[in-house]
Amino acid sequence: MIELIEVTKRYGDVVAVHGISFQVDRGEIIGLVGPNGAGKTTTMKMITGYLAPTSGKLVVDGKDVLSDPIHAQARIGYLPENNPLYPEMVVQDYLSFMGKMRGLRGSQLAVRLRTAAAACDLRSVIQRPIRQLSKGFRQRVGIAQAIIHDPDILILDEPTSGLDPNQIVEIRDLIQELGRNKTVILSTHILSEVEETCSRAIMIVAGRLAVDEKIETLSGGQRTRLALSKTTDGVLKKLEGLDEVVKVEASNDKREFWIESKNNADLAPTLFALAVEQGWQVAELARERRSLENVFREASRAAGGEKS
Amino acid sequence: MSRICVLAAKEFKSFFSSWVAYFFILVFVMASLWFFFFHAEFFGRGRAEIRGLFEWLPLTLAILVPGLTMRQWAREREMGSIELLLTLPASTSELVLGKFFGCLALVFVALLFTLGIPITASSLGDLDWGPVVGGYCAALLLGSAYIAIGLLVSSWFTDQFVALITGWMICVFMAAISHESVLFWATDISKTLADTLGFVGFWSRFDSIERGVLDFRDVAYYLSVTGLFLYLNTCRLRLQRWA
Question: Which residues from chain B sit within 8 angstroms of residue A93, using beta carbons?
């Protein structure tokens, strides 16, 4: 659906994007992450045809974006950074304007407008001027505008920035819903958002591709955490003696243990049985995912970035 | 074609969602009335003609039109909505023409509001409608040229007021260089200078059209200036991709 081949973008002497290549298939939800100024927004602007790459090639739906931007732009719904809107316009007029600019007319436009407004839960504010809306509603107007023509591809630049936690959850659910039959690329600073919403994470650090992994693979390294209510001797030995166990880490006070198993097998039943047998006082027994945050911190450190 | 109309309609409407449209029409009509009744002393001359109505139009429009065009591209840039416009499946010329016709529609409406003047004049005496029709055509052509200049200026700036001031300077300059008094002074220096100013400037051409002499060359001149600036505007937008 979308393919970037060795794409580079230079602003004067500054290289914003440095030879990035990746491919996005139909139905994927890509989370684009990275430090501020890493090149996420520039990458998105190039996919939408707003910016031309200095070198390299971008292909959207089989056609080169540079030589045929209209082909790509007809298939893409785009929410730019900071969600620009016309504050003086009424929501309905704005959506209808964007729909008409995308070639929708008459009953088709009416149906699409109703669908988009319903999907973004805008029906209650449809007759209000945009300037009167809260930030959460404005964000929905921005997304509604992006889906008005039912595009195959959605490019959303920081769709949840500046929203409160409730609004973030709402927008995230909406994106997940839309992602069922669309290809989505979204950028964000919130790593948990990528974990929950996306099927794949792409990290850009200092204009270079640092991580490109499926979320399952990234958070695949699960481990089990065992916490005891008091320090007990010989626990480490017993744990290491178990068949399925690959590696055990213990906390300094010997009350917490992190156990990795072969093939990510679920150790909880075995551990529980062992604890009962040994008479350990278990405070907590839980499966933990390897946090994305650590993965990204390592990646950005390796690539020379400061923070993620 | 349809996208041009959609964008033009949106721009035209948005003039009315702020004071811009009302201010433009009000000032334009007031200025026309003043020039017609007081400056040109319509009643004092005792003849049913509307010469005074258009006499100062090149200056009035040069001052008013940049007020319409200043925000067109500058505001889109300032707010970032230019990114949405330029990523629509529309060509840059469709976008530029949409903006252009949106502004021209407002100038047209403002001109309609002054129709009361020739109608009054014709009720008082035998009005020759030839120069009236010529005058209105000339006003639209002149307005087109100013709009095209103003739009290009607006596309260069992010600050609307810088766009306004620059628009004023260019439009007033283009008009003033061929005003009678300037031409009179230029003739003293050299004939070539006066001829050049008369050719390039907007005022002298406007005078001749307004007199009812619709010369093909004058019409072609206004249209080519408009076309040239609109074309430069599309180049400016295409350049944006290579920022």
Answer: 13
**DSSP assignment of A139-196:** HHHHHHHHHTT--SEEEEESTTTT--HHHHHHHHHHHHHHTTSSEEEEE-S-HHHHHH
- At residue A219, the 3 state secondary structure works out as coil
Closest approach of chain B CAs to the CA of A113, in angstroms? 16
Is any Cβ of chain A less than 8 angstroms from the Cβ of B122? no
Rounded to whole angstroms, the Cα distance separating A272 from A280 reads: 9
Q: Which of A86, A98, A105, A161 to mutate to test the interface with B (most CBs of B within 10 A)?
A: A86
Q: How far is A12 from chain B (nearest CA, A)?
A: 9
**Tens place of pLDDT per residue across chain A (308 aa):** 899 999 999 998 899 999 999 999 998 999 999 888 889 999 999 999 999 999 999 999 999 999 999 999 999 999 999 899 999 999 999 999 999 999 999 999 999 999 999 988 899 999 999 999 998 899 999 999 999 999 999 999 999 887 888 888 888 888 988 888 899 999 988 888 888 889 999 999 889 998 888 887 776 667 788 888 888 788 888 888 888 888 787 887 788 888 887 777 778 888 888 888 888 888 888 877 666 776 777 677 666 544 43
Q: How far apart are CA B14 and CA A89, in angstroms?
A: 8
Instruction: With beta carbons under 8 A apart, name residues in chain A contacting B94.
Output: none
- The answer to whether B190 contacts chain A (CB < 8 Å) is no
**Encoded tokens for A259:** 């156990």
Strands A2-11 and A14-24: antiparallel
Size of interface A-B (CB pairs under 8 A): 66
Q: Which of B83, B242, B243 sits opposite A80 (nearest CB)?
A: B83
- Tell me which residue of B188, B31, A42 sits closest to B197, measured CA to CA: B188
Residue B91 forms contact with A (CB below 8 Å): yes
- Residue matched to tokens 């109505």: B53
Whole-prediction pTM: 0.85
H/E segment holding residue B79:
helix B57-79
Contact A11, A53 (CB under 8 A): no
Q: For residue A36, which amino acid is it?
A: N
Instruction: Tell me the three state secondary structure of residue B55.
Output: helix
Which strands sit side by side in the sheet containing A208-214, from one edge to the other? A76-79, A153-157, A183-187, A29-33, A200-205, A208-214
> Please, what sign has the CA dihedral across residues B176, B182, B184, B189?
negative
| Cβ-Cβ contacts under 8 Å, A84 against chain B | 79-81, 83-84
Q: Residues 60-79, chain B: which have Cβ within 8 Å of A?
A: 79
Q: How far apart are CA B66 and CA B27, in angstroms?
A: 14
Residue B6 near chain A (CB below 8 Å): yes
Strands A2-11 and A245-250, bridge-based pairing: unpaired
| Distance of alpha carbon A25 from the chain centroid | 15
